[in-house]
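DM from R.C. (forwarded with permission)

"hey, sorry to bug you on a friday — could you get me a structure for this? deadline for the figure draft is monday and I only need the backbone to look sensible"
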Amino acid sequence: MPLSIQEGRTAVQLARGAVEAHLTRGRPPAGDWPPGLFSELRGVFVTLNVAGGGRDRLRGCIGFPFPVKRLGDAIQEAALAAATEDPRFPPVSLDELDSVKIEVSVLTPPEDAEGPRQSLPSRVRIGEDGLIVSRGYLSGLLLPQVAPEFGMDQTEFLSQTCLKAGLPSDAWLNDSTNVQIFQAEVFAETGPRGKVVRVKHGELPRA
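My reply, with the result:
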């Protein structure tokens, strides 16, 4: 069942609240989730973007591709990790948080891509499907909103996911490479601390 807009707003509020609590008190709020969505095991990613200049700038993105944690816990842990542990960026400061927009992507369980590899691009839906590529200990993931944001077609999307995994760009053609497809429901602030909206097909929320 799709998440409601209210559930999406709660998800984004949980992410922002966890980061703020960590930066002000040094610990996230305790998670005591009643039965329902936030007690279910779900995969999730939290993305932090710095607003301004006509195009948002990535500030951190970390999550759990597979449903191994309760959604409420996964959102809080992913938000903290995106703000403080993304190896591509220094930790977010409390002052900086007022310029950061928060986005939460709640994932469906990944499924193996079936069928001939040569025809795999035709089975990837741009703006709807995310990809996980893995071989051995190497793994890379790109969320569904990445392909339309950067103007990728299906083949480029597969290749960029391979590169993120540390594999050759054409590794998706090799049967020894595992390719999985998932979808995401995405909710994001239109501006720092702004209104939370559902993001459809990679459409970027605007203030």
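R.C.: lifesaver. Residues 44 and 106 are 5 Å apart (CA to CA).
me: no worries. The first strand starts at residue 43 and ends at 50.
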